[in-house]
Design goal:
The protein folds into two domains: 176 residues, 2-Layer Sandwich (Ribosomal Protein S5, domain 2); 193 residues, 2-Layer Sandwich (Alpha-Beta Plaits), CATH 3.30.70. The protein is built from ten helices and twelve strands. It is of the alpha+beta class and 383 residues long. Strands 1, 2, 3, 4, 5, 6, 7 and 12 form an eight-stranded mixed β-sheet that branches. A four-stranded antiparallel β-sheet has the order 9-10-8-11. The longest helix is centred in the last third of the chain and has 26 residues.
């Protein structure tokens, strides 16, 4: 038996899903593959082609705390699934990611691919929302990454040749089919040659900064009895998100906060605006205008969200100066990993040559580790 989950890219909506913002996404025609068979004794035995250590545990005996290896994603998924469904059978097999690790939501893809297989051997059928929320809970509650629902939603809900527009506040979404007026495009992936782990990066710190700034803004607004604030939201840090406050509240009270928190807010509200503008540009077939917004998103990620290592920043800079690229930015959290871009297929060869030449000239030690991949949009696992 086989299971597959695609990777994803997020052209707009960077770093705001965990604050219940609005996001865009594509699923890719590359992803995580698993070949597996049932084990009736309930044991999980999986060998990864990307990591050396084999995963081995029983579906009814998951440690309460993470172990610290790649299989924590599987353990977390098993624990979340077992909260709602009875698990009797395990599985054995091999799992492999089709592209290098970092920036394409490989962890979410591993979890969803594994969930599909584990559900199959146990006769369980999950809804789209169950896949999304169980996979997210595995990362949040077990692995320890404070991610939002962007990755999981794209990998489940996306449709080929369409842009997924998702509101992370109420889970409303729409897949907008590429219009006949829009020129053809491909999705280019530029791997920096550096891998990263979200749990050990600055990702969780950024989430905490966003929540702290939301808490501060909400407190200021409540003290002034602002009418555009939902007074039903409790004054508890764990319950606060930037979507709880308005851009007007930020403009009025933001100067009271540390500059670092102000930058996080500038990114959130400007990115929300870019998503809303981008939806209209996509629907009208304006890929040039949509691409400019992606470049602007990348700039805000660097300046306001302060993500990106020197290697990714260099890739971004090169992309902004390369003919045939409509728009591009960091993919994923932006702490190592890769960059993505929407490109004109007619320029694919020249883009590949120029970006690699200029990037390796700056980072010669990454020769042989850096890589370029050309992708198409694809359906999510729920299709």
């Amino acid at each position: 038996m086989q299971a597959f989950c695609p990777y994803r890219v997020c052209p707009l909506g960077a770093h705001i899903d965990h604050q219940f913002g609005k996001v865009h996404g594509f699923a890719l025609n590359y992803g995580v593959h698993m070949a597996y068979g049932v084990k009736e004794n309930g044991v999980i035995e999986l060998q990864s082609m990307n990591f050396q250590k084999r995963a081995q545990f029983h579906v009814l005996s998951i440690p309460d705390e993470k172990v610290g290896d790649w299989a924590d994603h599987l353990r977390g998924a098993t624990k979340m699934l077992s909260r709602k469904y009875t698990l009797r059978h395990g599985l054995c097999g091999v799992i492999k990611g089709a592209l290098p690790i970092g920036g394409l939501s490989s962890s979410a893809a591993v979890i969803i691919c594994y969930l599909k297989a584990l559900c199959s051997v146990n006769g369980i059928s999950l809804s789209d929302s169950e896949y999304i929320y169980m996979a997210k809970a595995a990362e949040n509650e077990y692995v320890g990454v404070s991610c939002g629902k962007l990755d999981q939603s794209c990998e489940v809900l996306c449709k080929k040749d369409s842009l997924l527009a998702l509101d992370c506040l109420d889970d409303k979404y729409e897949n907008y089919v590429k219009s006949a007026e829009m020129p053809d495009f491909k999705i280019a992936i530029f791997f920096s040659g550096l891998e990263r782990s979200l749990a050990s990066s600055a990702y969780n710190n950024r989430v905490d900064e966003c929540k702290a700034s939301a808490f501060a803004l909400y407190s200021y607004a409540v003290s002034d009895l602002r009418s555009d604030i939902d007074m039903g939201v409790g004054l508890k840090l764990k319950d606060m998100y930037l979507r709880n406050v308005t851009e007007g509240v930020f403009h009025e009270y933001g100067f009271r906060m540390p500059e670092t928190w102000q930058r996080r807010c500038r990114h959130f509200f400007s990115e929300m605006n870019r998503v809303e503008q981008g939806t209209e540009l996509w629907k009208s077939g304006d890929l040039v205008g949509y691409g400019k917004l992606i470049f602007n998103s990348g700039a805000s990620s660097i300046i306001n969200y302060e993500s990106g290592c020197p290697e990714l920043k260099k890739l971004y800079q090169i992309m902004t100066q390369t003919e045939g690229i409509y728009g591009g930015r960091f993919s994923g959290a932006g702490f190592k990993g890769c960059c993505m871009a929407l490109i004109d297929p007619a320029y694919a060869d020249s883009i590949k040559e120029k970006v690699e030449r200029e990037y390796i000239a700056e980072f010669p030690l990454l020769r042989g580790k850096y890589s370029f991949h050309l992708c198409d949009t694809a359906d999510g696992v729920g299709k």
